[in-house]
Amino acid sequence: MLKYFPQKSTKMNIVTVSGTEGKLTINPETGQILARTGYVFIQEIDTKEYKKKYPHSEREDVDILDVGYWEIIEGVVSYTPPYESWREERDEMNNQ
Questions:
Q1: 19 within 8 A of 63, measured Cβ to Cβ
Q2: Residues 85, 90, 92, 50: is their CA dihedral positive or negative?
Q3: 31 three-class SS
Q4: Strand runs (DSSP E) across 1-96, as ranges?
């Protein structure tokens, strides 16, 4: 006789960060990049800043302009902050 034992979900929450140059699949807790198409220089997404800005967000798809990230180009690490002007324009359009 076979017995059925329901398994606990092992699905990790993921978020897609996308833009005109590609798409990143990330762990929303750590900012770690799990998969990518394009954006080869980006090493990590700044999820702490995003959560501070949007503490109750449960979005699964985020525009690359809405997040900060660290990238490495020719061995130099740099931080690119979110585009605040883009955020403001988007918020204005959503409030109309």
A1: yes
A2: negative
A3: coil
A4: 15-19, 22-26, 33-38, 42-45, 61-63, 69-73, 76-80
The tokens of 57 are what? 């967000």
pLDDT (tens digit, 0 to 9) for every residue of the chain, 96 residues total? 444 444 444 455 889 999 999 999 999 999 999 999 999 999 999 999 999 998 888 888 999 999 999 999 999 999 999 999 998 898 888 887
Strand partners, 72: 77
Instruction: Please state, in angstroms and rounded to a whole number, the distance separating the CA atoms of residues 63 and 74.
Output: 25
Q: Which amino acid, 41?
A: F
Specify the residue for token string 């999820």.
Answer: 47
In DSSP terms, which residues pair with 77 in a beta bridge? 72
73 bridge partner residues: 76
Comparing CA positions, the residue from 56, 68, 65, 69 lying closest to residue 90 is 65
Distance CA 42, CA 72 (A): 7
